[in-house]
């Protein structure tokens, strides 16, 4: 009898807590979630030399954060540093770092800790795309995709998470992709790296949550194509539900999700529906839907030759 009472009690506690969480979510559907202040926070952005990384840097500069900018491209990273300086940043430090190299990440990370301090918002944004079908993609390029788009996240977490835990204060941001939720024709290595980045960030979130490290937040971002250099030439057939996103819009949403401490951000909203449908539709119907939305042809116009060669 006693074990049954124990189980019933556990179930009641679970149901009670669940109701509270649902009520809280409903309340925040109608009233705006308070945004956290990030003035003075040390924000590290990888891949800050262009695209989303540069725009994120500008946005955090305007919010009063201290910026640590990492990129493999020294010149473009320095350009970003100058741009954020002109935007009136509290402090901006540019470091050349090849995030695909573990030793480079650790070396530059310890330099940052000495010269700037403990990073409190880590944005793993650096990324590359090969854009070739699996059997056409050379092994070295596939390895590089995994090194930059996924493994770099392991090394940056190892470098900066311990201090966040010690301070009970930190935010881990993973720029994954909708290609980290659903396979995309012609992007096998990219999808593998983005699924891995998603799974890794989600698991560390579970670990910090279960360890009651309440000060450590996570945001995982999964956007569809964005008009940056990375996926230049790619098209979307159903642009009313799956538009190619404007970079400024994407960055606005990403920063807002960080300030709201939102765990998942998929954009556009249709991605939530696609992920939901994928979980139960018969695979043949899923393929029909994929064909209908043009998923087998997204990459047809891909012209990012710099990264292709
Ligand atoms: N553009 C899109 O359509 C899209 C869609 C979904 C997700 N994303 C993701 O968003 C992130 C930013 O993409 P973007 O569109 O701004 O691309 P981008 O090509 O404009 O910028 C990527 C930056 O990463 C840097 N980088 C590349 N390899 C590096 C390395 N080894 N070490 C350090 N820096 C390196 C590049 O120099 C560049 O500045 C990427 O992770 C990308 O996968 C992009």
From TrEMBL:
Entry-linked SUPFAM superfamilies? NAD(P)-binding Rossmann-fold domains
Q: Answer whether the UniProt record assigns the keyword NAD to this protein.
A: yes
| Coiled-coil parts of chain | none
Q: Which GO terms describe its cellular component?
A: chromatin; endoplasmic reticulum membrane; lipid droplet; nucleus; plasma membrane; transcription repressor complex
- Biological-process GO terms, alphabetical: keratinocyte proliferation; negative regulation of gene expression, epigenetic; negative regulation of transcription by RNA polymerase II; retinal metabolic process; retinol metabolic process
Query: Keywords, A to Z?
Result: NAD, Oxidoreductase
Question: Pfam families per the record?
Answer: adh_short (PF00106)
Q: Which Gene3D superfamilies match?
A: NAD(P)-binding Rossmann-like Domain
Q: Report a single Gene Ontology molecular function.
A: RNA polymerase II-specific DNA-binding transcription factor binding
- The superkingdom listed in its UniProt entry is Eukaryota
Q: Which CDD domains match?
A: 17beta-HSDXI-like_SDR_c (cd05339)
- Give the family from UniProt: Belongs to the short-chain dehydrogenases/reductases (SDR) family.
Name of this protein: Short chain dehydrogenase/reductase family 16C member 5
For this protein's source organism, the top of the classification is: Eukaryota, Metazoa, Chordata, Craniata, Vertebrata
Gene name as annotated: SDR16C5
């Amino acid at each position: 009898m006693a074990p049954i009472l124990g189980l019933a009690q556990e179930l009641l506690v679970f149901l009670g807590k669940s109701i509270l969480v649902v009520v809280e979510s409903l309340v925040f559907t109608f009233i705006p979630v308070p945004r956290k202040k990030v003035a003075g926070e040390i924000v590290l952005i990888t891949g800050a030399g262009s695209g989303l990384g540069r725009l994120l840097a500008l946005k955090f500069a305007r919010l009063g954060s201290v910026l640590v900018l990492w990129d493999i491209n020294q010149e473009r990273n320095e350009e970003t540093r100058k741009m954020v300086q002109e935007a009136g940043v509290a402090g901006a430090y540019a470091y050349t770092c090849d995030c695909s190299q573990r030793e480079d990440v650790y070396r530059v990370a310890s330099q940052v800790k000495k010269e700037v301090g403990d990073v409190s918002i880590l944005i793993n944004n650096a990324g590359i795309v090969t854009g070739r079908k699996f059997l056409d993609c050379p092994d070295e390029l596939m390895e590089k995709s995994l090194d930059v788009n996924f493994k770099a996240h392991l090394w940056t977490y190892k470098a900066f998470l311990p201090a966040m835990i010690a301070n009970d204060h930190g935010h881990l941001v993973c720029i994954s992709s909708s290609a980290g939720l659903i396979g995309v024709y012609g992007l096998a290595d990219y999808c593998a790296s983005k699924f891995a980045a998603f799974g890794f960030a989600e698991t560390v979130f579970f670990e910090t949550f279960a360890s009651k490290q309440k000060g450590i937040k996570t945001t995982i971002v999964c956007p569809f194509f964005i008009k940056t250099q990375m996926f230049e030439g790619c098209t979307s057939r159903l642009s009313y539900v799956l538009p190619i996103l404007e970079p400024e819009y994407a960055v606005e949403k990403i920063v807002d999700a960080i300030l709201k401490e939102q765990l998942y951000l998929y954009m556009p909203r249709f991605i939530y529906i696609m992920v939901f449908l994928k979980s139960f539709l018969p695979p043949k119907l899923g393929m029909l839907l994929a064909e209908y939305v043009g998923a087998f042809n997204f990459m047809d116009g891909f012209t990012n030759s710099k990264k292709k060669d």
